[in-house]
Inverse folding.
């Protein structure tokens, strides 16, 4: 049944069922991995585990799904989705949050076409067509969901993990709560306290220590903000908890470690075998906190007068295109019609396969020295969308003319910026030189009279970067 066919009150109720924190399942992997790392039994994992599934580069990509629990309406909607990509060579992790309203199907039934309904529909189909158990059907649905999302992102998915609300609350409480810095007051007067019962969740600006239930409310609340704000809060909690594990060593308590499987029984499921999962934990245990890259797809795509945000590659679909009262997001693609995932694939593949250009967190300065300010601004927005720390220097028209150069070039001030500078040089077809005396530091891109803006997705076609059509 499509959601536009549901009675209005029921439709609004299940739309209010917000997602479990995107950090939840990722947190489980990182927490358990940190347990083994802190206890110094990494070799124990090596003995018991096996090398996890990976691509030709040795990278393992895991899809994390968050759902409600059996007491919630539409409990099988995966309203939390995150890609976690682990690279043992760089000891890094990439976390990419995927919005639940992103359209993934061709049908006009939006409930069927929205990405958060894939798992629910695969599971229901298997249950109606076979005598498979609920767990068996869930595993099949998880694999199929992983295949579809992997195809859309343009990368292989090697395993899928699933967790519900209850598992999230139990983990937070087991760790003694989570500390967060609330940057904006939240007053959500339509928060689903219990099934069929709406109440108010409110939290003020400032530092807070949250127990499991309050942390869930903080992660789920969206009626006074957006789904993208909620994704930011969820990643905030992930970082806070991971830092707590690393700095305080609270999981050295063997009894606590042994209690985790029992706490999560019935609330956690994975398509990985036991040994493969231990192998994933071993890889996660070696991840450095400063080498965790986070990104969330959002609709802050920027304009010719405003700045874009990292991950700004989705937009709201025109209401007349889909038969639904629910919100629908579509990818921002080049060309615009028909919508494709080519820019999201480019983002994903850069983060996963070329993460070294982001791991040094290089600052990029754009200097329009002959090109137009508009072309410089468009390049800045492109770099921002793809996760670069880009800034445009203020140069007035007179200075632009007086300082103009014919050929564009790139200089950088420190050796650590070499991967990003070299990549940008090849991408933009500009010469690159190391100049330690560069005044602004970081990477400086001098945009001369020869520069003409072009989208990154088109520039990559001439580079050795795989981008699906």
């Amino acid at each position: 049944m499509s959601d536009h066919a549901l009675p209005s009150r029921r439709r609004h109720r299940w739309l209010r069922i917000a997602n479990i924190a995107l950090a939840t399942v990722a947190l489980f992997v990182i927490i358990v991995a940190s347990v083994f790392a802190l206890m110094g039994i990494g070799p124990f994992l090596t003995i018991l585990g096996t090398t996890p599934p990976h691509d030709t580069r040795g990278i393992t990509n895991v899809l994390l799904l968050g759902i409600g629990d059996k007491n919630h309406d539409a409990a099988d909607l995966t309203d939390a989705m995150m890609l976690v990509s682990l690279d043992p060579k760089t000891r890094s992790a990439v976390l990419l949050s995927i919005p639940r309203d992103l359209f993934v199907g061709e049908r006009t039934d939006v409930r069927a076409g929205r990405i958060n309904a894939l798992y629910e529909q695969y599971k229901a189909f298997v249950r109606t067509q076979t005598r498979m158990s609920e767990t068996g059907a869930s595993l099949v649905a998880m694999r199929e969901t992983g295949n579809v999302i992997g195809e859309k992102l343009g990368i292989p998915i090697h395993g899928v993990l699933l967790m519900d609300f209850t598992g999230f609350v139990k983990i937070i409480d087991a760790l003694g709560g989570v500390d967060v810095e609330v940057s904006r007051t939240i007053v959500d007067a339509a928060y689903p306290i219990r099934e069929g019962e709406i109440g108010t969740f409110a939290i003020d600006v400032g530092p807070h220590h949250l127990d499991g239930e309050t942390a869930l409310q903080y992660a789920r609340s969206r009626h006074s903000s957006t789904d993208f704000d909620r994704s930011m809060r969820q990643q905030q909690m992930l970082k806070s908890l991971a830092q707590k594990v690393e700095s305080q060593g609270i999981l050295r308590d063997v009894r606590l470690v042994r209690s985790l499987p029992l706490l999560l029984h019935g609330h956690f499921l994975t398509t990985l075998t036991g040994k493969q999962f231990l192998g994933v934990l071993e890889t996660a245990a070696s991840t450095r906190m400063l080498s965790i890259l986070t990104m969330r797809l959002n609709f802050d795509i920027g304009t010719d007068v405003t700045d874009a945000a990292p991950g700004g590659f989705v937009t709201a679909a025109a209401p007349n295109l889909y038969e639904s009262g629910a919100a629908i997001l579509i990818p921002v693609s080049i060309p615009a019609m028909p919508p494709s995932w080519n820019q999201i694939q480019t983002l994903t593949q850069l983060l996963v396969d070329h993460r070294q250009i982001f791991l040094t967190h290089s600052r990029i300065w754009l200097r329009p020295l002959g090109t137009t300010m508009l072309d410089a601004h468009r390049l800045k927005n492109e770099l921002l969308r793809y996760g670069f720390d880009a800034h445009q220097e203020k140069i007035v028209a007179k200075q632009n003319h007086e300082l103009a150069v014919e050929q564009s070039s790139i200089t950088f001030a420190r050796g650590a910026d070499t991967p990003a500078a070299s990549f940008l040089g090849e991408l933009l077809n500009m010469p690159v030189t190391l100049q330690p005396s560069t005044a602004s530091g970081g990477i400086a891109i001098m945009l001369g009279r020869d520069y003409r803006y072009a989208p990154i997705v088109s520039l990559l076609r001439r580079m050795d970067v795989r981008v699906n059509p």
Notes: The chain has two domains: 3-296, 314-462. The radius of gyration is 23 Å.
